[in-house]
Design brief:
The protein is of the alpha+beta class. It is built from 13 helices and 21 strands. It starts with 6 loop residues before the first strand and ends in a 14-residue tail after the last helix. The structure holds flavin-adenine dinucleotide.
Amino acid sequence: MLGPDAVLPGDSRAYLTDSAEVRNLGGRADAVALPSSTEEVAGVLAWCYEHEVPLVPRGGGTGFAGGAVPVDGGVVLSLERLDGVRAFDPPLWRMHVEAGVRTATVRRLARENGLLFPPDPGGAEQSQIGGNIATNAGGPHAFKYGVTGAWVTGLEAVVPPGEVVAVGGSVRKDVAGYDLKSLLIGSEGTLGVVTAAWLKLVPAPAAALPVIAFQAGADSGCAAIERVLASGLAVAALEYLDGGALRAAAGAFPGDVPDGAEFMVIAEADGSAEEAARLRAEVVDVLSEGALAVHAPDEPRAIAEVWRWRDGVSYAVAAQRGGKVSEDIAVPLDRLRDAIEGAVEIGRAHGLATCSWGHAGDGNLHPTFLVVPGDPNDLERAERAAEELLALAAGLGGSISGEHGLGWVRRGQLGRQWAPRALALHAEIKRAFDPKGLLNPGKKIAA
Ligand SMILES: Cc1cc2nc3c(=O)[nH]c(=O)nc-3n(C[C@H](O)[C@H](O)[C@H](O)COP(=O)(O)OP(=O)(O)OC[C@H]3O[C@@H](n4cnc5c(N)ncnc54)[C@H](O)[C@@H]3O)c2cc1C
């Protein structure tokens, strides 16, 4: 069906894992399929459905939930060859791309034409737009601009038993049917295979100016974050690093880190050059209160360095002990401090060095337990700590995943935050799309 160079053996290692690899997630596949068109995807899915073979859709493999890992054999279906831009209409602020186009390519194309595709998850050079849609990925700028789903006006997907459907399109508004598009968004490859998407764009702001404030600890840091919100300043991003994350990444920070800094707040002011400058001045004012130092670069290179450094925080933290078990909880904004401090306490109780960072404005944090890769003792303690962390998130009125999804690592945990009837509806939706349960089995299981 696909030709000899488009089916790889099942032991092709690059297709058996994702960013959650350290959590002992070794996959096992019978084959890897590399289709080049929607029709070929439909052919593979139809074949798998007929022969009762599990199918695991795969994007860039950057996910942190084990979602793209074939945990129990079957066919890995990698979308990397569906990498065409079907249409790009800058005057109409829209783009129609295939699922395998990399996130960074979409952003670059938009930018070169004066436009912005705002979702900016950190693994953008490797992740694919289809993977971003399947996880409804966020990122720093989701605070002002919303998550990936907010920028998708239509989807083309292959659904069991092998049919191509299009929901939405280049039309910007569409409430005609039940919102199947939103059901597919964030479904982590368990309801259908996304093959293409219609994306909307916005004119790129002329300027985007970061302001970085160093604080003595989580108390004063969270108070600073709340002041930014209360002051009504519409910043584009509002990020934080706690003391442990800051210490891990401080060495590479493109500026001075003052002694005693145990918390960092990163805000960004964007808009026209005048708007951004005015907003930045106000943000500097608000963040200076009680800060050890405030850093506000205005040279494009220095600004780019700040965000490059921010993208590297995850790797700098992992480098501390060689590996990390990262979680992704979201809590109401007034509980952020409790979540940050609670995560460190949980880690301490299990004898694990722990830190967190994340998208403070969205109450979305990545508490992270440091481990030595392959050390079963470390891993076991980290998994127990992660369980307690999910309980903490639910107890604070939050969510067990803000942007990474349930995947494999958080399967069966949704009951912590949903009532039984909601869990039953979740399972019924899965059955309606995938009656044989062959699409990404074992993933996004609610209870
Ligand atoms: C350094 C780093 C920083 C990150 N920062 C962020 C961040 O700020 N915000 C954030 O949200 N995430 C972040 N991530 C996580 C990750 O990049 C996102 O979850 C991303 O959306 C995954 O895309 P992918 O193409 O790599 O998907 P994969 O990892 O390949 O797959 C993820 C899930 O989507 C499914 N899937 C993939 N493609 C399709 C498709 N075409 N159709 C149906 N299902 C599909 C898979 O089955 C799997 O369940 C980060 C990751 C790294 C490594």
